[in-house]
Write a structure and sequence with these properties.
This is Oxidoreductase CzcO. By secondary structure, the protein is an alpha/beta fold. It has nine helices and 21 strands.
Amino acid sequence: MSQNRHLPVVVVGGGQAGLAMSHQLRARGIGHVVFEKNRVAHTWRTQRWDSFCLVTPNWQCQLPGFAYDGPEPHGFMGREAIVAYIEAYASRIEAPLRAGVGVEAVRPRPDGGFQVATGEGGYTADAVVLAISGYHVPAIPGMAAGLPPDVQQIHSSAYRNPAQMRAGAVLVVGSGQSGCQIAEDLHLAGRRVHLVTGSAPRCPRVYRGRDAVDWLAEMGQYDLPVERHPLKGDVRRKANHYLTGRDGGRDIDLRRFAREGMRLHGRLIHVDGTRVAFADDLEKNLDNADAVYTGIQGAIDTHIAKAGITAPEQAHYRPLWRPGPPETTLDLAEAEIGSVVWATGFRADFSFVEADVLDPRGLPVHERGVTPLAGLYVVGLPWLHTWGSGRFSGIARDTAHLADHIAAQGQALAARGQALPMAS
């Protein structure tokens, strides 16, 4: 393709958010190209473990124009099925996808629009949509450097299965969704596991006869705009609730794991060779997670009562196990820990956007995906607009809103798009 060719809209990222954006733009006659530096569903393919599955039911897979219609709406797709779903979507909508072409820089032009540098040359564009999520660089704390070289260290994004880990026990740092599910995966395989807990909350899988996600959706929780959330924009910093869709779906109860032999610890605060130190907050972490769990149960009870719904009675969760005196230090050698999994999240990297639109955490400043820079948009971030924004369930609404906003830039944009050929 020629240098500095003009495109009405450039979509950066060919995952579910970028593809959904493509569908909405096509529906409005707006020309565009989707640049994906790897291939469709790359992150799902390469950064998920073998037993990974969705934690939300399949029926919530509501990509625009391609809702899940398989035989298990209340099941939970595994990694390969998720990849197949996204691939099928890209094919169905005939996305103008340029796979293997990365966007290296996005620069605003003085006269409006953008200069877009890619691996295959430069382009200009009237609008750019950043659809690359916010999980780019594994966030491993600096204290990891203090571990001895003979201890295997991997980030959760590189974890695949228990056989990958060295002999001995495994220390999993982080009790969010990934950390808890990886700890469970190791535990079920018979590995000795130490889990470092944090502030992540938990959610029931099934309560009073239905999946909690079904209840929460019926209650409008996934449609709650961020500005109406009690925490407002701060909710974007909160960890997701931990539970699992594995084996048909179930709770993750760290107290039960502890009863079965898993060692739980408070927050990791220091590493010095084989000696590690923990905060004295294990009991608080467990209690806070359970308080969210029972709070969800209580909210569902209230909804059932107000709506006059007939549902089976079910007692609220009661703790199965209480920690003893806090264990604030541990010698990895004495505990025979040969591996550490850092389930400590990611940092965003939007550094290729050469404009003053990033907040202190490196994420684009926006209002419902519309940044302060005219023509620059972002989609696919958690709580972009609602709780559903970072999930398959909310992407249709978010991309429709942005496509309408782009269309409002003028009829000329849509007219130019009619003649834009599909990418091969």
